């Protein structure tokens, strides 16, 4: 089996495992939408809307080809501009209905850039991050510890680097604040060798359910009211702003002619914006800003 076939087998299996687990928790089934891309390739989008637990959840697999890498993929590696590409990965965003249950994002991906007469250039990327609306220290510690556990077998420095990278990447520069409490993020991973990079990426994917499911199950029945839902919708606005303004994955998908419905499934269904609004000091909403959106080292 070729290296790309091995990656594809892992990604499709990961998508299925996550969807099966979430269906058990929610009690409703994902819509499975198999699609093809005219330029080459396709994917499977699994989307659940108006669930018992998830207000919207999307778990997407894509495997696409193109004649030239989009600008978002060559910004840090201009020497690859103009190369054809093959890209595949799993990307998910889960927006629970309960404001006490955090939004979560996971992405694991593989990309090859090709040029006639030259060796293919390949790399992995990915990570996961947590976006709470009401913060709980035990949840933050659990999530970050699981991220650390995923990387520990590959060297003690990986978690420090990828945690810092995540804090810097998922940052709304125009707001001067983080999107959430972070996790891990990596890109352009091509060293020391394919097997190590693939194993690390697999470990990140394999640790997702153990990182998030205990938090989701622990918060999904917490009582809430209109105030909490209103704040959740306001903070979801930050999620939308980041994904549409700064996120490289969104830009790559749109610039490469990707499937818009699948790319934008990450956006929450109910969002609010307010003009120059700030939470009351000392309130549960204010604590999110003072105790959680501050780039802490949780483990």
TrEMBL record:
PROSITE patterns: COPROGEN_OXIDASE. The keyword Cytoplasm applies. The lineage of its organism: Bacteria, Pseudomonadati, Pseudomonadota, Betaproteobacteria, Nitrosomonadales. GO terms for cellular component: cytoplasm. The active site is at residue 105. Homodimer. It comes from Nitrosovibrio tenuis. Gene3D superfamilies: Coproporphyrinogen III oxidase, aerobic (3.40.1500.10). Substrate binds at residues 91, 107-109, 257-259. It is found in: Cytoplasm. SUPFAM superfamilies: Coproporphyrinogen III oxidase. The record marks 174 as: Important for dimerization. One of its GO terms (molecular function) is protein homodimerization activity. Belongs to the aerobic coproporphyrinogen-III oxidase family. Keywords: Cytoplasm, Heme biosynthesis, Metal-binding, Oxidoreductase, Porphyrin biosynthesis. This is Oxygen-dependent coproporphyrinogen-III oxidase. Involved in the heme biosynthesis. Catalyzes the aerobic oxidative decarboxylation of propionate groups of rings A and B of coproporphyrinogen-III to yield the vinyl groups in protoporphyrinogen-IX. Residues 239-274 are annotated as: Important for dimerization. It catalyses: coproporphyrinogen III + O2 + 2 H(+) = protoporphyrinogen IX + 2 CO2 + 2 H2O.
